[in-house]
Amino acid sequence: MMAILFNHENNFKNYLMYGKRQYMKQKNVVYEQGDIGKGFYYLDSGLIKVHTSTPLGKERVLNIVLPGQLLGVQAMDQQAHFTTATTVKDSVLYYFSYDDFKKLITIHPPILNLITKSIIQKMHILAEQINLHTLTTEQQIATVLLNIYHDFKSYEIPLTQKDLATCTGLTRITVYKTLKKWKEKKLIDSKNKRFLIKNPDLLKNYLFQ
């Protein structure tokens, strides 16, 4: 199945005039675990990883934010972030403060429903993964791909093998071997710098091994 599913955040580009444009170079921290949220971001271009630390201090990637998506929404109303967001590539973001958001929903009330859906989806993703202390290589890669699949509402994941290795911290050889095995099992495919998730239900099995 190769159809692109409806993604409510794609419509958010219509509201960028209400935010503040920010350019961040690679490896910059957008927000840090423990920081008090005062707004949220829309990623216009680039790539961002959302990660946390295990009790042993090891970084674990929970999600990858792609252009056209929101981040930081779950902590925008004076709540502490329980993840850290870091740019993987040079990125252009639009920042919406809490005051910007109040002005936006006053002028465009339907946007509140879009933000609410985004918060619910992101909290669901994080709740599933944040209490796992250790993940195997296959679990790490499956987690990233499936979280993007659910969050971005798309069977096509616009990431390269290099992007996946950079975001997860795994070697390109490790990522290559895992993806090669999954291609042979017809779980995924890749072309034109994109991954195609052919069977998300079977891919989920790797999360529980």
UniProtKB/TrEMBL annotation:
The keyword Nucleotidyltransferase does not apply. InterPro entries: cNMP-bd_dom, cNMP-bd_dom_sf, Env_Response_Regulators, HTH_CRP, RmlC-like_jellyroll, WH_DNA-bd_sf. Residues 135-201 form the HTH crp-type domain. GO terms for cellular component: cytosol. CDD domains: CAP_ED. Transmembrane segments: none annotated. One of its GO terms (molecular function) is DNA-binding transcription factor activity. This is Putative transcriptional regulator, cyclic nucleotide binding protein. It comes from Priestia megaterium (strain DSM 319 / IMG 1521) (Bacillus megaterium).
